[in-house]
Amino acid sequence: MKYAFPLFSVLALAPLVLPGFHVTLLTEILIFALFAMSLDVQVGYARMFSFGHAAPYGVGAYVAAFALSSGNLPLPGAVLVAVIAVFILAIPIGWLCTRASGVAFAMLTLAFAQLAHAVIFKWNGLTGGSDGISGLLRNHGPWGFAGLESRQGYYWFTLAIVVGSAFLASKFVRSPMGTAIVAVRENEKRAVAIGYEPRRLRLAAFVISNTWAGLAGALHAGFLLFVSPELLHWTLSGYVIVAVVLGGAGTLIGPMIGATLMVVGGHQLSAVADSWPLFMGLLFIVVVVAAPNGLWGIKSSIANAIAVRKAGRLEVDHVAS
Questions:
Q1: How far apart are CA 201 and CA 94, in angstroms?
Q2: pLDDT tens-digit map of 79-117
Q3: Between 75-97 and 54-69, two packed helices, what is the crossing angle to 10 degrees?
């Protein structure tokens, strides 16, 4: 946390010194980082592996697109409507999915995601089918949000939301509910013995995780001003799982780092090689084998080793004195 303010300051000042392409790339990184962080609430803290996390992301994007194109809402209003819609939908879906666990839970999330993808793909009259919805505008609204039309303005808007979400997520995982979710993850029988209700806690983790994913999807719609059924495809769910595992599940910051590496690596490698996913796959294998706890786990391991060494030296000095 001690590095949070300097990092935020650097990111806030970035549009003032970077060219337009890099500002666009940073915006894309922030949105995908928020998406990865949302999945970490399920995977890292509740140990609920979802193969359908693209569903709330895509639904959030489409609801925001409808609000911008049909409702003529200002962009912040469209994002808020999308978040509320995803939150409401996540409750019954989560209630059904959390009746299962393990592989069955993962398959249920995948089934709901594929169902949502099929509906979006087939409902041509409303969703545009395979063509999606294009030509969206970042509406000003009666209160005036003209600054969001610019590349820099939208970047700062996204940065504020992502930073705020990361702060709230860190508070949530350290809250009584967050620690209860971790307790259920570690030992469900003991958690039940002391009065916790595992299914309710898993449902809470599912709904909160999906709501943040919907927020990321809404930001995606406002960013590209275009949505398509690909946003709900299972491949995107796999892509974000890789980001979480690569960065380090159960850390919040780790998946955001993994997402950054995935986006930057994809942009750089695709420019020099058509088979860039192969290189990303090899990198993923190396990290999983060499650092099972992810990239952020390497930092934590080094910090723990230094702390143990310092403690050992202090003990030696105390005995010598």
A1: 11
A2: 999 999 999 999 999 999 999 988 999 999 999 999 999
A3: 150
Q: Which string of b and e fits 306-315 if b means at least 16 CB within 10 Å?
A: eeeeeeeeee
Measured between alpha carbons, how far apart are the two ends of the chain, in Å? Answer: 36
CB atoms within 10 A of CB 212: 28
- Show the tokens assigned to 194: 């002391």
CB proximity list for 191: less than 8 A, separation 6 or greater: 180, 183, 184, 198
Pick the closest to residue 219 from 158, 165, 279, 132 (CA basis): 158
- The pTM for the full model equals 0.90
Identity at 159, one-letter amino acid code: L
Measured between alpha carbons, how far is 309 from 225 in angstroms, rounded to an integer?
53
Of 67, 119, 63, 116, residue with least CA distance to 86: 63
SS (H, E, C) 276-287: HHHHHHHHHHHH
